[in-house]
Design goal:
The chain is of the alpha/beta class. The chain has two domains: 217 residues, Rossmann fold, CATH 3.40.50; 192 residues, Rossmann fold (3-Layer(aba) Sandwich). The longest helix is centred in the first third of the chain and has 21 residues. The radius of gyration is 22 Å and the shape is globular.
Length: 417
């Protein structure tokens, strides 16, 4: 009853913070999670992902990783941490990966059951939220509800990563791996990067088929002079933690809008309105947080994708390169802050652009704005790179090493039985 009351309270706080439709979507997801658990009871598998909450993080770190593990011959499933049948599922799987899970009495009992059976527990994160001491760097902390603050101050999943029983961790970037290794040097850390799933690739193909080539006028099929072609710069925010990131290039974007009358700015997702853009209301378009399908359409409708991150901020340095490959698969070139993850993804001037300071941002944006050919060539190379390195359908060395560890543990367990 206590856990049910906590669940209702968290739902109410989510409703107050996000509104009716996000709350409705979340409720439907929780219900489907319970129904999925009933279905999972019919299976015996290798890996069970236990996710803390739905969203982009769970999509990339749980569902897409399941697709990749399945391509290596493993059986993998995903279930929400609040599923009432979770303890029963501990008898059906061998490996349990806890992804951004909030520790409570229910999770403690589930982990206890896994330990009693001598099975493997792994900690998974794509952010620095596991340790409360990093919170001072998180801008979103100022927007959290009271209960969220308590959870984040404690550290999301801190009890799991600090458990001596848990020997292995999975992260999305090398920067995160370094942080985990510094905090917990006894842990083995696997870097399994975010990648696109077959359903995301299929959606991208559909969107590309409908994309209107640059330089065309709808209705009469005629071409217009390149300098008069509208060039759309897009910024896409998936959470409330990016206000300072976007603010780092606000002055530059205002300068660009003043200089280039054919440039438009498309802002999507959580982002505070900025008075600096009031003078360009006819060329600045705002969209709320949208579905994955709509997001692909909006990205494809842009000519340049920008991915700024706040300098000298460990939370930003821990972020993955997904903004690069979500745009790249749609042939949209990206200008990004030169963080570790974006350096891993982008070769400056080839499949995108890296910017370390204001002058670098200005130089890269002006090159792309002034040359449709450059936008198209860089976008095409980005797409080829994404298909080669950022899909779950391609075999990746680091995933093979991780799967090898799983297979060896399974073989060792079978030899004892």
């Amino acid at each position: 009853m206590k856990r049910f009351g906590s669940f209702i309270n968290r739902g109410y706080l989510f409703y107050k913070d996000r509104g009716f439709f996000p709350f409705l979507s979340l409720s439907a997801f929780y219900l489907s999670g319970g129904l999925n658990a009933l279905r999972f009871l019919r299976y015996r598998g290798d890996v069970l992902y236990v996710m803390g909450q739905p969203g982009s993080s769970a999509k990339y770190r749980c569902y897409n990783m399941c697709d990749e593990l399945k391509s290596h011959g493993l059986t993998a499933r995903v279930v929400f941490q609040g599923t009432p049948f979770l303890s029963m599922l501990t008898k059906r799987f061998s490996f349990f990966i806890f992804q951004r899970v909030r520790y409570d009495d229910h999770i403690a009992a589930v982990i206890g059951s896994i330990k009693d059976q001598g099975k493997v527990i792994l900690f998974e994160t794509d952010d620095l939220v596991y340790n409360g001491r990093y919170l001072r760097h998180l801008d979103y902390y100022n927007h959290m509800t009271g209960e969220e603050r308590v959870c984040y101050e404690n550290g999301i999943g801190r009890e799991i990563v600090e458990d001596p029983y848990v020997e292995n961790c999975i992260v999305s970037t090398q920067f995160l791996a370094n942080c985990i290794s510094n905090d917990y040097p006894e842990k083995r850390v696997f870097v399994l990067r975010n990648r696109l799933s077959p359903d995301q690739l299929k959606r991208a193909e559909k969107v590309l088929d409908q994309r209107v080539p640059a330089g065309r006028v709808l209705g009469n099929g005629g071409t217009i002079r390149p300098e008069n072609v509208k060039v759309r710069i897009g910024y896409f925010s998936g959470s409330r933690s990016h206000d300072k990131d976007f603010a780092s290039i606000t002055d530059l974007l205002v300068e660009v809008l003043k200089k280039y009358k054919n440039v438009e700015l498309v802002l999507v997702g959580y982002l505070k309105a900025n008075d600096r853009f009031k003078g360009f209301s006819d060329r600045v378009t705002r969209h709320p947080l949208v579905s994955a399908e709509k997001l692909s359409e909006l990205i494809a409708g842009c000519d340049i994708n920008v991915a700024p991150l706040e300098k000298e901020n460990p939370f930003c340095n821990a972020k993955s390169e997904l903004k690069y490959f979500e745009a790249g698969i749609l042939r949209v070139p990206t200008v990004a802050s030169a963080t570790d993850a974006f350096r891993h993804a982008i070769t400056d001037g080839e499949n995108g652009f890296l910017a370390e300071e204001a002058e670098g941002w200005k130089r890269s944006l002006e090159k792309l704005i002034e040359s449709r050919e450059l936008r198209e060539s860089v976008g095409s190379r980005a797409r080829a790179d994404v298909l080669n390195r950022y899909t779950t359908t391609v075999r990746h060395k680091e995933t093979a090493i991780f799967v090898d560890m799983i297979n060896k543990r399974i073989e060792a367990t079978n030899s004892k039985s």
